Amino acid sequence: ARRALEIAPIALSSVRRFAWLNYLAALQLRGDFKALQEALHTSLLEDRFHGDAFPVSPLITQCAVSWMSADLAALQQSALHLLRLTQERDLLNEQGWAHLYLGCVAYQRNDLAGAAQAFSAIVKRPYGTHGHAFWQGAFGLAAAHCAQGAAEQAQALSDSLLATAWEMGGANVVEEAHALRAFVALQRGQRDEAQRWAAAYDRNQPLAPMSMFCAPALVLARILLDAATPQTVADAEAWILHIYHFSRETYNVRVQSEMLAMHALLHEMTGARAKALPLLEEALTLAAPGGLERIFLDLGAGLVPLLNEAACRDAAPEFARKIQQSWPPMLAPANPRQVAPSLPPPPAPVAAGAGDRVFSGEPLTRREQEVLTLLAQRLTAAEIAERLVLSENTVKRHRTNIYQKLGVNRLRDALAVAQAAGILKQ
Fold first, then answer.
1. DSSP annotation of 208
2. Taking the model in full, what pTM does it have?
3. 53: buried, middle or exposed (CB in 10 Å: 19+, 13-18, 0-12)?
4. Which SS3 state, helix, strand or coil, does residue 388 take?
């Protein structure tokens, strides 16, 4: 890329644009941030010779660098600059990148309405923006829907986009659509579908830098964590560590923080609080300067007891308390307790006082309680159907009713609420 910049004439705007993009990306991956900032400044000064779409690529790279560095303030500034420039120069297809990174900022700050608005601006124009920006915007919108408790909207989105993927053609596009469906299935507690996708995922493919909202490798990590059993916990840990080491090598602070938090939760699930706490403290320390809240909120109520303890220690206590305040009340246990080591346990029950009621909604039916008990044992819908002599669809309907009554969107949170309310015994 540097050689291309040395020999390519200024008149070759598109050539120099992509040469700068690759040169800047290489500096980021090498961790040469001083040279990176100098190169960014130089590349943007060159725009005076072009006046077209030339500065878009350096600005997109600047956004990606800020995102990977977990610097939301810098990311917002760069994305707003990119949005203004693309609007002034009528670069409609490039505006998706600005909306994507503005959505990333809003999402991690837990501004879910703002995130949904930004991501929707991309998704409503599937053929009017760059393919990567479109699919990453779809991931972001689905995540925002799920975080808002609108999992059905996320499901409808993933269903419609699978058809869009087939229309667009290309194996990579279809793979993105299936990864999105697996992501939504996990959020909705449809573990069978999520695990089918995970089983087919090619773990031998090289990891990408993960410079946008989400990546299939991160979806796989979440699925493995959610489905961890005594037999598979080592597999989940190995994949989390694989991504963590790659993120360190590529200076991706955001992903480092996410993997540390996931690793902490995995240890917490096995009862290894002494191992979990330092990992969570390191994750909080990395995420606190940028204010990346959703890294922790997206891991569900199982993280709450560990977070409660971290908030009383020295590692970013104010940030930890801010995250605590963002939890839905029914998912925020008052006192931290260690989870029993029989994995995969749900989060530990909490002894609630008279003023600490966690669940006061419509009671579960006897059949729903039976289904919930078997879900806590990590049985699939098919296994529960066989055990209770029901159809698989009936079991799934019971599961949906359970989630609605408990006010949650996924199994881990359902178990946390049910235990805290005394509906489910450990």
1. P
2. 0.78
3. middle
4. helix
